[in-house]
Amino acid sequence: MQSTLRAIQAHRALHLDIIATGIHLLPEFGSTARLIRADGWRIAARVRMQRGDGSPLDQANGLGRGVSGIARTLNTLHSDIVLVVGDRIEALAGALAGVTTGRIVAHVHGGDVAAGDFDDAIRHAITKLSHVHLAATRASAARMIRMGEERRRVHVVGAPAMDELLALTREADARSAGLREFAPDLGANPFALVLHHATGRADDIERRVMGGILQTVARSGLFPWILYPNTDRGHRGVMAAIEEFRRSAPRLREAAGRAGADLHGSRSVGRISRSLPRGEFLRALRDCAVLIGNSSAGMIEAPMMGTPTVNVGDRQRGRQRGGPCVIDCGESPAQVRAAISKAMRMRRRPGRVYGDGHTGPRIAAVLAGLRQDREFCRKLITY
Question: Which of 56, 162, 320, 377 is the most exposed, having the fewest neighbouring CB atoms within 10 Å of its CB?
């Protein structure tokens, strides 16, 4: 969202406040609020939601804390518009807080489809709560109109992630030394970026699936660079599999702090990162041989750069693919192994489904032009 934040901050009719919540405040996931500050942004407020304990009630209780905490913050800040993104419970909390306190809610990435855990239900609930829709693709915009949203409220702006990606691809050398500078342990070896989230199942199921993925990557001969999952139900199982894999590979180490910390040396067999600063993640995504897992980055960011994606399982079922380099496979080691083999033979073919790199300014222009009156806040269903 950084290009969007910059465009809002620069617009003379808008004032930007950032609320940090959810996974950004959890130490076990890297306390990534520090990365917001490191990039030069002022955090107006922090609202604690999930505790990250993996219990069945954590998401529900976190949602309740988020709605009340964000609502209080919006009143304190005298906010007029609440901008939320995607299908996370943090976005749902923001949308509910905005609607119930009489504010305009603007939603980015509405109308997308992805099975996830309860992602689709949350995304479409946010669509019905929102007053203005900032769609990533024409297909997503058309879907929201079919859901009964008024055409005047739907704007096709592209995906915010594309802005930084397209700037990155304009670098003179697409295989520049930038990544190797902050990850010298990679050497010249091809590496796989592994980013796999839980899908709401029991921890032991998620642990078994992630463990199979990691063992398959290790046996493929690729250097595994493993990223931590998000807080979806079952994440403890994914994290347990990562820890088991780390113990099984004595020379696998965890990168502390920013990914630039060189803790590995020339004999490293892999690396683990709880989180990555956005720029470093994009460079890793650009330079990896393949992205493996079930992240939306495999549907949106990776295809734009032509990076092959092995999309494991059905978490992204129905989501529009951003290019031709996505390989869908089941969760068994044999299926993952076959998909990796196919990906390694694939020619990189970038796609541009999700935008042209100018999403941030478009979003800022839409927000600045909104009518802040009672009539605009009264939504009609068109069917």
Answer: 56
Residue 73 is part of a domain; what is its CATH number? Answer: 3.40.50.2000
pTM of the model: 0.83
Q: Is residue 23 situated within a structural domain?
A: yes
Tell me the one-letter amino acid at 54: G
Segment 350-380, tens digit of pLDDT? 888 898 889 999 999 999 999 888 889 999 9
Per residue in 130-147, pLDDT tens?
999 999 999 999 999 999
Is residue 203 domain-resident? Answer: yes
Residue 111 lies in domain: 2-158+357-377
